[in-house]
């Protein structure tokens, strides 16, 4: 195995490799952060890896604080609480540490510590982002502990507007973390079902980006190789959580997916976002379940590029059907349920889900512009298992 350690400066400054969490205090110093606030979720807050990171920073003379008041799908209220913790502790930088929820919450806190306006004023609509007082924003170091969302290389956070049961995208170019640590050892403790669900989210990012109709060959190149990494390494990471090579490659595939999806997402995410908000279900798991149904619905628009992709992946049958079969087999191997019914979601709210999906920002990247009725029908297919 080649040594999987490297420094990259694309799309941001990335430190990849086992054990590189040890560089956290030095990276704070490099960004002139003297009092970082480490933002994580309650599950991670009690684990040694968070305690070690906080202690390493304190040992290096940094006044490091800890905030873990966030939910699985972080809410506007969680962000407000984080801003209070930041101000009360007189912090000067954010370490966003954890899965997608912790990273998104940490990035949103870093934005909001410098603003007078409310969070929703910065929803990714039109040129809302130009309302931001950039000078007040905190520098961000991102440390993902799951391989899926790729939020560490993104300029946006998904935050739930709890009173309205809707997920909103908060965007500003400077929400892109200054430095990222991709340390596979931090992901080794993830149980197989979380490794599988988050890894399938990375696959869905690469796949939807590849299929989005806009002109962006650079993103397509990244997406194709990101899909290959998932194919080679996700089954290994699920089968043996301590496989550091697989864990490294999945972290990279996750960053690649989020880099690629500036080209656009599509119907999987357009449906997964409302379903996550309505049923509080796991985002990656939703995408994993929805994947074959959405692929099938898009078939006529994506067939040629799926055939090309299948050749690159070395599938036995380089065709749309061959690719769909591979997706179904991968899901089976990873023990991903086949239907939404299997995770307790029935089709009674189909019309509402359809309306929410068509209004979701991700719908704009779908190869075919589905209407609300079509999204309702795909949702029903996923409830009932009709591929
Ligand atoms: Zn996703």
Keywords:
387 residues; alpha/beta; Rossmann fold; Dehydroquinate synthase-like, alpha domain; globular; binds zinc ion
Describe this structure in words.
- The protein starts with 5 loop residues before the first strand and ends with a helix.
- The protein folds into two domains: 6-186, Rossmann fold, CATH 3.40.50; 190-384, Up-down Bundle (Dehydroquinate synthase-like, alpha domain).
- The protein contains 14 helices and nine strands.
- Helices cover 49% and strands 11% of the residues.
- With 387 residues, it is α/β, with parallel strands linked by helices.
- The model has no long low-confidence stretch (mean pLDDT 97).
- The strands form two sheets. The chain has a seven-stranded mixed sheet, with helices on both faces.
- Zinc ion (ZN) is lined by residues 149, 201, 204-205, 269, 283, 287.
